[in-house]
Amino acid sequence: MVTIKDVAERTGYAIKTISRAMNDEPNVSQKAKTIIRQAMLEMDYYPNSVAQQMRGKATKMIGVVISYITNPFFAYLVDAIEETANQKGYHVVVFQTKDKPKNQMRFLEMLKSKQLDGLILAYIEEETDDITDLIETGKVVVCNHRSPHSTLPGVFIDEKKATYEAITFLIEQGYRKIAYCSGGKYDPDNLRFSGFIQALKAHQIPFDDTYHFEHKWDVFGGQQVLREMMKMPEVDRPQAIFANGDLLASGILSECLTQGIKVPETLAIMGFDDQPVAQILTPKLTTVQQPIKKMGELSTEILIANLRGETPPDYEVLATMLMIRETT
User: Fold this and answer.
1) Cβ distance 250 to 309 under 8 Å?
2) What is the pTM of this model?
3) Which Gene3D superfamilies match (predicted)?
């Protein structure tokens, strides 16, 4: 059985500091409280939450479910969520699903057992009745990610429209042989892929299966995409590639520079997200800008308003913007 001493050893803080953090005393720094609360959740040590539940008090803790913290998109999203939550007196803990639905179920169980006040689902491994039921209670807000046929309410962009506009731009620039890099498992119903196909069809361009590349969501995955592309006969290679994330795009660009491939003269590259790296790269990356900060802020404001019994702010589908730079 995990004890407060175990938490102290895990975090490096004294037992008295652990106790004060659990009671949310003001003489413990915000950083220490966050570290301690995160360790408590990871170690399944919740004496304070149980006691607060018995006294009818809130834990003042919000969980954020993401896929991988190593993806900078989620790092920026969590930063916006935490800043907004802290301003309203709440602490934030982060959970990674790592492509495992059972992890998602565990986080939902923590909410149902009142170890957390609320949950922001920024990534959903699979939609379940539990999620729908908890959304109706106001204790769960979904943002960023949902399945193509989902009816779950939440804070989203129009991924299909954003991709359609991005591919249409490439076509209008004269590119006809356009590749799609999904990043992760291929899903023909994916909203971005649907927008990609719709844009091709609107311009009578057939989709070539050899122009679809499936790799991890990171720089190394992008580098591998370019290496595979270069194995194709020169006359068959794509003229442009849409990468389903800026990390993928930056890996493709990096490998282009290594192999002496001119961008955009030989290969145009477009990303998605508009992370800071997009403006640091040489040449600078053309990409679809997501309002990551706004998404995090709005999701948090809605959740906390629900938890307090207040009217949540009105919102619509968040707008994206095509940031045209030097890679197209």
Assistant:
1) no
2) 0.79
3) 3.40.50.2300, lambda repressor-like DNA-binding domains
